[in-house]
Write a structure and sequence with these properties.
By secondary structure, the protein is an alpha+beta fold. The protein has two helices and six strands; from the N terminus they run βαββαβββ.
Length: 113
């Protein structure tokens, strides 16, 4: 368990669609997290804030796992002629989406009762 002797905390804000996969992958690698549903200005969409307490020795590993959720491409379909009110064929356009905002904090004291 990489959360023992916790001296760092990662606050990761992910898009709402991305967090279940991120949590599953973190768990597979021995990281356990608390998920808070959130909304706000960082990503301007429903999001989840993940709190991960860990030992500094595992910080780079956790950040590398979270980095994978920093970007993805989805196809959006838009009218071919650029006139949304006129029925026209649609064209798939790749759109960059997703994202993760990370904060790494020092933990002065960690207690478990």
């Amino acid at each position: 368990m990489k959360n023992s002797n916790c001296d760092k905390m990662i606050l990761a804000i992910l898009q709402g669609d991305d967090y279940p996969e991120a949590i599953a992958e973190l768990n597979e690698h021995g990281f356990y997290a608390t998920v808070l549903r959130s909304t706000g200005g960082f990503l301007r969409k429903p999001s989840a804030t993940i709190m991960i307490g860990l030992n500094h020795a595992y910080l780079d590993e956790a950040l590398a796992l979270l980095r994978r959720y920093g970007e993805r491409t989805e196809m959006q379909y838009q009218p071919a002629l650029g006139m949304p009110s006129v029925p026209t064929p649609t064209v798939p356009i790749p759109v960059h989406c997703g994202g993760v905002v990370l904060f790494v904090l020092d933990v002065e004291q960690s207690l478990k009762y």
